[in-house]
Design brief:
There is one protein chain. This protein is α+β, with helices and mostly antiparallel strands. It has a single domain, classed as 2-Layer Sandwich (YaeB-like fold). It contains 2 helices and 5 strands, in the order βααββββ. The protein is globular and about 40 Å long.
Amino acid sequence: MIFKIVIEDEAFSDLQNIYNYIVEQDTKNKAKNFLSELQTAISTLNTMPNRCRNSYYNDDLNVKDLIYKSYTIVFKVIDESVHVLSVFRQREY
């Protein structure tokens, strides 16, 4: 089964903020490349999204976390679609 991927508004805003932060800290080229990597990671959710762990941030069993590098992509599986809810960087403590 192939799942449709839906980027929710909050997640879209998160991706824009990640891009802007990298541009401020480094270069537009690095920001574009990293955003492309995140989008590629998200696109893998179109097959077998339930392979990911249950979310640490939500008790709903349909909400999962995909980890890419130090970023967490929180998504919810609804019927035949994957809704990306948020994307954020985990900090080391």
